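Narrative summary of target 7.
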Amino acid sequence: MARSPSQPPLLALNHVTVMRGEFAALQDVTLRVEAGEHVCILGPNGCGKSTLIKTITRECYPVASEGSSIAILGRERWNVFALRSLLGIVSPDLLASCTSDATGRDAALARLGIAHLAARPVAQMSSGEAKRTLIARALVHEPQMLLFDEPSNALDIGAQIQLRDTMRALAKGGLGILLVTHHVSEIIPEIARVVLLREGCIVADGPKQDMLTSESLSALFGADIQIARRDGYYSLS
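Modeled conformation, tokenized:
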């Protein structure tokens, strides 16, 4: 998506290292995501994907060092609650924290075609309905980007297809998408750029067609992977 020359990037990380205990979950990460861009962070379990999300949302903080910085929408200092309203977050952690009497009452439900869920407790929803309700909640404050953290976990095939259709509609509507996943099949056609993350380091970053090759994915996941493409989606063959 084209952006104004004066518009700051949504996200700019420069030489960021994040420790989780004595372990460096992210190591010297430099990453820039433009406003309105559609990007996937792809990597195996334990590679630092969730730490990256938590660093963006200020749940984790990087090691203070010369040359290290994080800026969101051009600013390095944010009120955490104001920041999170600009970055809609769809995460399994949020779903797990829903109480039994929580309901999806947000006006954004109608935008996703699930207004009929407005009075239904989350505990009485299917996993697919609950996930779409989380997306609606993330849209309430009209964020500039949605951060999807392993969005299809625990979803059956039908719910996965519905979720991908929802993501595509939001992307086509101009909303930025940052997808963090280890599932190649979650990468919707509208995502043009893929960043490969392994052991806390970015090992490659570029156009989707260059990143999603059998050779690069075999090296990323440490297994013999054969990749196929159909209708704009990639899958294991």
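The mean pLDDT is 85.
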